[in-house]
Amino acid sequence: MKQLANFIDLEKLSTQGYQWQGEFQLSQFPRLAELLSQKATAKTTFTCEINKVSGIYWLEFSVKAPLENQCQRCLQAMDFLLDEQIKLALLEDKSQASVLQEDDWLLLDDVVERVKHERRLPILTMIEDELLLALPLVPKHDYNDKNCVPVEILADEEEEPIVEKNNPFAVLAELKEK
Questions:
Q1: Where along the chain do its domains lie?
Q2: Strand pairing of 113-115 and 118-121?
Q3: Which of 154, 150, 152, 136 shows the shortest CA–CA distance to 68?
Q4: Which of 13-17, 45-49, 117-121 has the lowest mean pLDDT?
Q5: pLDDT at 139
Q6: What CA–CA distance (Å, rounded) separates 66 from 44?
Q7: Considering only CA atoms, which of 58, 60, 51 is closest in space to residue 21?
Q8: Which residue in 9, 99, 113, 131 has the most C-beta neighbors within 10 A?
Q9: Average confidence (pLDDT) over 6-16
Q10: How confident is the model at residue 126 (pLDDT cuts 50, 70, 90)?
Q11: For residues 124 and 113, is the Cβ–Cβ distance under 8 A?
Q12: Where are the beta strands (DSSP E) in the chain?
């Protein structure tokens, strides 16, 4: 399986561009894998392209990944399909933002790592960041999903009835009434 590069040299990128297409394991993204269930080892189809157009680097990628997470309503496993297409502008300076139609941009100085005379773009980290942003904030089954029973309902059935104890302030209330 062809590996997705960890870093891309911006100087080479500006003349040659970068394209990658294939499948990979989500375990390549440790922060993402830690949020998903252990079953999240399914292969992910992925395409990535970076080009420089009119002095602006464009990172475009699409990802399709069957994932499993924990429903926050019933705490059971929940399958969902992460199907995202992302287009991100990578700018040399903020003045370039005024010519963009899109709101999704990053400054290269904020993401590029400098090694000697090279400016390296951490492509894997950037993609993982975007995938983390694409995850549902609170994953939960559809409201009418018959397999999703909220934890509160299950807890109510299993709990013993609450026995009311004498209120320690009841004596004070009686004294106050007298």
A1: 8-147
A2: antiparallel
A3: 136
A4: 13-17
A5: 87
A6: 7
A7: 60
A8: 131
A9: 77
A10: confident
A11: no
A12: 8-9, 18-25, 43-53, 56-70, 77-91, 105-107, 113-115, 118-121
Q: Tens digits of per-residue pLDDT, 129-151? A: 888 888 888 888 887 777 787 65
SS3 149: coil
Please enumerate in sequence order all residues whose Cβ is within 8 A of that of 122, keeping only pairs 6 or more positions apart, or say none.
6, 7, 111, 112, 113
Ramachandran area for residue 54 (φ above 0: left; ψ -120 to 50: alpha; else beta): left
Q: Over the range 119-147, which residues count as b (16 or more CB within 10 Å of their CB) and which as e?
A: bbbbbbebbbbbbeeeeeeebbbeeeeee
Q: Look up residue 34 and give its two tokens.
A: 């830690």
First to last CA, the chain: 85
Q: Does pLDDT of 33 surpass 70?
A: yes
d(CA 63, CA 86): 9
